[in-house]
């Protein structure tokens, strides 16, 4: 997003009274009464059970879904008032297993948004190499590989590099490390937390893994049945007395649980 | 008369009939692809229309080929005796596998890949050309391969309405109760079908994205 409107506040993403009903199921609300402000540079982790609406909330930001009621603001402007293609090119998006294009090489995947944006070839190549080094993949070794020639962890790194390539202010991540083995997962979580602090992006991160939320987040927002039930800094989150938070936290307390 | 003898003495005639047969198939397939692939592309985002188009194409395919040729003869403009009518019937037959595979190939893709493409700010046209087409091409090609094999077979019946081709020998052989004459049409037709199947299959495997 080149033509940034002047920001009188530090709010990067805002939800105002947002409701969402799945098309054709108007009776069942997936989200209701969501009001939330996300500040520049925050890493907000959305946690909750499956079906609590966290992925839906994430997809409203880049207009993959449209709210049934309420308003979503990005950089002070309602998302439905801006061109959706422009909006999305300014927002990085990472999903489980990366969603990489299997017919493109790693370099082509990473350089995709810059190419769509019409950057010159030299600039794209330089940027791709920079991004690959940023996520710990040597360009010489990996640039020419296809996604199927990578491990799960490497694919996920490519997914992050691709999302960052056009230098978006906002990064949306939907269970990005969900499909990885626990060791690789912890590695990527720590590296990512470090990366997020250095880059200063505004990040919305969805997970159902509370440990992951504590590792990467600067703020944890918990959803239950489509409503926000908790919103706290990681160090405060475990001290909250809300029943849903207690139930969620308790499931992580015992080693050897299904979550481990 | 024995088979080898008949083939030897009618070389030129068999060769000419094979060329005429290939011409019928090539023209019909070219038209069917030019209709089927773009039509399939427009149906990607229209579910209702998609079901209707595939339904119509399926019904066309269930009409016995000889009957379809017969139905077309009395039609004004389209019908009559000869190559044009034959080509129309062959196109109608080839349409279903091409249309169906185009729709399936371009829609039955990893949802995560399509979601990523959309979320990265690709326009619908960019998603079609850069993602759906390259990833679905081998499935589209499989439909073209099936259609080609069907067309080579059905084209033998086109001789019944005066369109020529290898069917000429088959009908003549049946009328004469002469196996050698039947085989002079049947063997080259079978070989053509096998060759087309093999070549297109090879291309299909080359284009497949693992």
How would you portray this structure in words?
The longest helix of chain A has 18 residues, at 182-199. In chain A, strand 1 and strand 2 (29-39) form a beta hairpin. The termini of chain A are far apart. Chain A is globular. Chain A has 260 residues and is an alpha/beta fold. In chain A, 37% of the residues lie in helices and 24% in strands. The model of chain A is unreliable at 1-8 (pLDDT under 50). Chain B has helices at residues 3-9, 11-42, 47-62, 65-72, 83-107, 111-119, 124-154, 167-176, 179-207. Chain B is mostly helical and 210 residues long. The longest helix of chain B is centred in the first third of the chain and has 32 residues, at 11-42. Chain B has nine helices and no strands. Helices cover 80% and strands 0% of the residues of chain B.
Measured between the Cα atoms of the first and last residue of chain B, the distance is: 53 Å
What is the oligomeric state here?
heterodimer
Rg of chain A from C-alpha positions? 18 Å
**Would you report the number of β strands of chain A?**
10
Short structural summary:
The complex is a heterodimer of chains A (260) and B (210). Chain A is of the alpha/beta class and 260 residues long.
